[in-house]
Amino acid sequence: MSNRAFKHKQWVAVAMVLAIFFLTTMQTATASEKEAEQIIKNQCAACHKFEGKPESKFNLKGPDLMWAGNKYQRPWLLRWLQGKEENLYPKGYRWDLSQTPAKHSVLSPAQANAVADYFEKHFLDSRVGKSPVDMSTFNEMEAQLGADIFKKFSCLGCHQIKEDDKKIGGPISINLYDAGNRYNLDWWSRFAANPQDFTPHSGEYLADLSPLGARYIIGYLMTLGVEDFKFFEPWKTAPFQKANAKRGANVYREYCVQCHGIQGRGDGPGASGLDPKPAVHAELPLSDYPEDYLYNIIFYGGKNNGKSPNMPDWGLTIPTQDMADLIAYLRATFKGE
Ligand code: HEC
Ligand code: HEC
Ligand code: HEC
């Protein structure tokens, strides 16, 4: 056999091995997809709808899953399908039929993975787009404002959360204390825009919320249950590193002296009718105030920081670099002497 013919044979052998390898992996892929399809048809579809229109829960046996490929974070879904999560509905999904939560069917790890793959491939909802909320810029104050909305807008009346590890709130609908580990941000943002599109009985409790308010409540839910959620800290960003107190003096003159006075004595022309009076910056050690405190009181105003609402919120008015310069000015100027 010539050297060349031998090489040729070698290549043919390698190509055949590769072909067999790809064919078998392809076959296992289709096998698990087929298996998932069977599982869904035989073990799930009796209770869950995977196509058609959303319906009143009083016609359903389990939550609709037409959007199951968008709704969940995969690790949560895998845990749920393997029976490693506690029940979602404290009084049972159909509390009108039985108020004790039933044990959910359990899949093996391989089956759960196959079903999750199948969801991601076949049950995508084209209405779900990219969320307008960027969680990498979500700060702690925003979460606090979201928590306030959760109570003010009655969410707590129907959904449980945890406070100091204790469950609080009404048990009639799904618990939300682990929402940040369960939902996909994009799905939840689209749900919040109009819950009726998904569950006709869920109510329009957010309909009169501002876009900013929507950001707070959407972001807040995405922090629930997430251990050590990494909040954004604006005061650690580049504009603050290159802040300039001299420039900040101009910002102070433009927006603050009207009430706080040119020397920070609380005696600006706008102060006369105010009770409580504007803070006397000249007597306060603003140089030693925590960085988040100054940022938050100026950005979100007195009303969101347990102070008089007559101290306005400047977050939508003063650009980031000006805010950084202003805070540098306050710190450099007012040392409580
Ligand atoms: C006997 C009816 C029944 C069967 C069968 C069933 N489920 Fe469920 N499923 C439910 C109910 C009820 C809930 C709500 C559970 C709760 O309250 O904790 C639920 C919850 C879920 C959820 C979370 C829903 C959400 O977003 O709140 C998923 C995902 C799910 N099931 C998938 C499946 C899959 C996959 C199968 C088949 C392997 C299956 N279920 C079989 C009744 C069923
Ligand atoms: C009167 C009771 C009620 C109030 C108030 C309420 N919800 Fe709901 N919520 C529901 C019901 C009902 C559903 C549909 C799921 C179900 O069958 O229980 C739902 C669904 C949801 C879901 C999706 C759950 C899932 O996995 O499918 C989220 C998230 C949610 N609500 C958040 C909120 C927020 C945030 C508020 C406050 C602005 C709120 N809800 C106010 C009853 C309520
Ligand atoms: C319309 C009047 C008004 C304007 C304009 C105003 N403030 Fe205030 N500010 C107040 C009032 C009133 C308080 C006192 C709130 C209280 O004690 O409950 C206050 C309190 C503060 C405090 C809190 C001090 C502390 O001890 O907690 C800071 C800091 C502050 N203002 C900074 C600013 C800055 C910076 C600007 C300009 C961007 C500004 N304020 C513009 C009215 C105003």
What do you see in this structure?
It is a single chain. With 337 residues, the protein is mainly alpha-helical. It has three domains: 3-122, Cytochrome Bc1 Complex, Chain D, domain 2 (Orthogonal Bundle); 135-223, Cytochrome Bc1 Complex, Chain D, domain 2 (Orthogonal Bundle); 234-333, Orthogonal Bundle (Cytochrome Bc1 Complex, Chain D, domain 2), CATH 1.10.760. It is built from 14 helices and two strands, in the order ααααααββαααααααα. It has helices spanning 3-44, 68-71, 74-81, 109-122, 140-152, 155-158, 179-182, 185-193, 211-223, 238-241, 245-255, 257-260, 291-300, 320-333; strands at residues 161-163, 166-168. A two-stranded antiparallel ribbon has the order 1-2. β1 and β2 (166-168) form a beta hairpin. α1 (3-44) crosses α4, α3 crosses α4 (109-122) and α8 crosses α9. The longest helix has 42 residues, at 3-44. It starts with a helix and ends with a helix. The structure holds heme C (HEC) (3 copies).
The SS-based structural class is: mainly alpha
CATH topology of the largest domain: Cytochrome Bc1 Complex, Chain D, domain 2
Radius of gyration: 28 Å
Order of helices and strands: HHHHHHEEHHHHHHHH
* Strand numbers in spatial order across the main sheet: 1-2
